[in-house]
Amino acid sequence: MKINKTALRQGLCRCHDCGKLARISTKCILCTRCGSQLHTRLPHSFQRTLALLLSGVALYIPANLFPIMTVTQLGVGEPHTIFGGIVALIHSDMLPIAMLVLVASILVPLLKLLGLSLLLLCVHYRWQVNAKRWTQMYRIISFVGRWSMLDIFMISILVSLVNLGGVAQIIAGSAATAFGAVVVLTMFAAKSFDPRLIWDVQND
Amino acid sequence: MKTSNYLACPECDLLLRGGSPVVGEKEHCPRCHCLLHRPRANSITRTLALSLTGLFLLFPANLLPIVGIKVLGNSNDGTLLSGAVTLFNEGMWGVAILVFLSSILFPLLSIVLSLLISGHLYFNHKNHRLSLWLRTLQHIEEWAMLEVYLLGIIVACVKLSSMAELKFGLGLAAFILLLLVSVTLASNFDSTLFWQRIEQLNTDENK
Predict the structure, then answer these.
(1) Same-domain check for residues A33 and A66
(2) Domain that includes residue A145, residue range
(3) Which residues does chain B have within 8 Å of residue A176's beta carbon, measured at their own beta carbons?
(4) Chain A CB within 8 Å of residue B8 CB
(5) A16 and A30: one domain?
């Protein structure tokens, strides 16, 4: 079954959308099966991932510093940051849920930003690594990204429910926009990173 | 060398002679262990049945109240859409659009596209848009986040349980059913088979 050669070395490229193999030529740029554009690797994968990653890093700071929501109860308003919300959950004896939010809204974005930076460094400096492990890391990064949306969904439910005028009201804060942007940017960054680049830089 | 006998791993580009795994087997890339193909039994029929079920469930899940609260005699119900609408009215349109897309529009689109594609393939109807639909479906799948939304509902309810009385609506039941249907739909969807069938239909058309 194993030929031990990459498609690229055999002059073939795989369609990103439908997986059909095609010969690399200057003329044929559209996949004959699904009509999408053919590329041997995702176009400008490194630069795109880097740009999206840097924007994500920049927005991660306001996302954690500014209040993500303001809870007003009987006229007394109290702004919460992402971390403050977790502390509040711990104080009300809801440790498992607090852990869940900690993982989804702080650890996952942070590890994603770090992981993607490592992947880019690996490709750029042609690090000789255990490529199988690094591909696994890439897979984990692209799988967990969506779970960070937890906080955004939670806020959207809270603002629509707790909308009782003077009695109780929850208003979303500016960090929500920043945090949503971090999630979207890192998801796009993971999507535009091509794991085949890790294998390309290994000398075997 | 015929290219159709070979396949390339999407994650490490290793060129492989295409195996033909049977239902219940998984084909992995020998170099990076990427899952290449996992055939499912009656994938097209199941996709058709599940997407039809999903289409019916979309209505109660989107229109009926999911959770309601009661604080000091004031009560308020929330539907799937009301979160996005409230955020939009507060001027948080970026977050509102993100919530609307990932909890309403993309789940809806992916069910409608699955229904269209599987329906055409089941009845052997030719349509030149089939490949466009399947490509769109593959790109939006990642952005339909019903399961994350359910987790969001759970965390929100836990946060509210100390300050308000909660009541769960029929919409929540429909939403959980819709979520189960979409997860089953995704796991029974055999994209390799779908692409092969689309190619067959298209080549028949050219003759």
Answers:
(1) no
(2) 44-200
(3) 92, 95
(4) yes
(5) yes
- Based on the domain organization, do A187 and A107 belong to the same domain? yes
Residues A82, A33 share a domain:
no
Question: pLDDT by residue (tens digit) across B36-59?
Answer: 888 888 999 999 999 999 999 999
- How many contacts does A have with B, using Cβ atoms within 8 A? 219
The domain ranges of chain B are: 1-39, 42-206
Question: Which residues 118-137 of A are in CB contact (within 8 Å) with B?
Answer: 131-132, 135-136
Option in A36, A100, A160 nearest B83 (CB): A160
Tokens 């440790």 belong to residue = A95
Question: Is A67 in the same domain as A135?
Answer: yes
CA distance A52 to B70: 43
Q: Whole-prediction pTM value?
A: 0.91
List, in sequence order, every residue forming a beta bridge with B166; answer none if it has no partner. B69
The encoded tokens of residue B4 equal 């159709």
- For chain A, helix, strand, coil in percent to 5 are 55, 15, 30
Tell me whether residues A159 and B17 touch, CB distance under 8 A.
no
